[in-house]
Structures are given as structure tokens and as C-alpha cells.
Amino acid sequence: MQEFFSNLVEQWGDLGLFLFSYTESVFQPFPVDPFIVLFITQGSPVASTVFWASLGAMLGAITSYFLGKYLGEPVFLKLFSQKNYHKGEAFFEKWGIWAVLFAAVTPLPFKIIAWLAGIFEMPFLPFIIMTFIGRVGRFVLVGYLASKIV
Known about the structure:
This protein is mostly helical and 150 residues long. It has helices spanning 2-24, 33-41, 46-80, 82-95, 98-105, 110-119, 124-149.
């Protein structure tokens, strides 16, 4: 699967990065950060790379939020397990909206948090704001650090 996504990004360029980032926020397990680094170290502009990765992540997060909201707990349990559901529920109970920001900037599987935000009916605007701050902030930092490698 990793080879598939590597080829997608290599052959499709920015669109491939966008699609990879989108699917990472919905269902697939590989983080987008290494591809941001790869793009930038191979000469892609930082701003463009961060833009496409961020756009994919934001649209993927919105998709996951609404999948959680409308497909709910039964589908989540089939995709992500009872264990992840209970961990996510405890995480949301403890941290609320801050759980979204924390998951957006860390290696935690953000897609799980985005699905659960929809399932637990978190207000959409705070979800989007925290997602934007976390994901875009993270990708800007990764892009900046990658540009220092070159």
C-alpha cells in the first residue's frame, strides 16, 4: 500500500499529495509528513506543498466528521475497533475540543478523532478551527524544517 501511495505522489505531483493527504484524514494509515519532506527536498516550493497537503487534510477531516455524524458508531466500530472507540471517548471527555487540536498536531491517528467528533456531535465550527490550526500549523512546521535540510 505504501508503494501505491508513493507512486501516486510521484506520478500525480501536487494532486497526488492532495489525494494522499485527503485519504490519510479519512481511512489510510500512512502519515503525509514524509511526503511533504520528500516534495520539498526534491525542489517543490514549501508554500505549494503545504497548501496541497493542508487542503487535502482539511477536506478529509470534514469528510471524516460527516461520516462519523451520519454513519455513526456502528461503522466506526467496524473500521476502527471498540478499543479505539473507548479510548477516543475518554480522550474527548477529558479534553473536549482540545482533543482535536492535540490529535491534529501529533502522530495520533487524526482520522479517528475526526470521526469521533462527528459521532459525539461536536459543534462543526470549533472542530474546523482546531483542525485548521493543528493540521496547517503542523504542515507549515514540517515544511519549514524540510526546507532547512535542502
